[in-house]
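Page 47, continued from p. 46.
Same chain as before, 142 aa.
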Amino acid sequence: MGEWIAEHPPFPDTVLVSPAVRANQTWDLAWEAMKHRVEAPAVEYVPGLYGAECGQLLEAIRTATIPANPKRLMLVGHNPGMHELALLLMDGGDSAGGKALAHNLPTAGLAVFDFDVKDWGHVTYRRGTLVQFVSPKLLRQA
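Result:
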């Protein structure tokens, strides 16, 4: 997935990562594949992401990023909260990706959203356009 991200801009300029070992390993592997091709993002380890429900994840997006106000943000967290959040953020976009995402957000799955908002504090449910959904399984099938 890190290689896929490195080959498909735009790249995140801020990454919020759960402090859990598995989330750290996921980010480390992705970054290892990307680091020679993209500029290093700001990485913030956010304790509140561990085991967070979708409302808590949304609040982390709104508050943890306000000082830096990044243009592109990536979250590395856990299900079921991440899957629920992705479904609740979606308001149109990639219909095939939306159908696949409705079934599952697997480990290392990536849901890319675009928000027409002034800043991250305005991100809310049903305001995101699903640009693309990618997973290791979908990449193997392609």
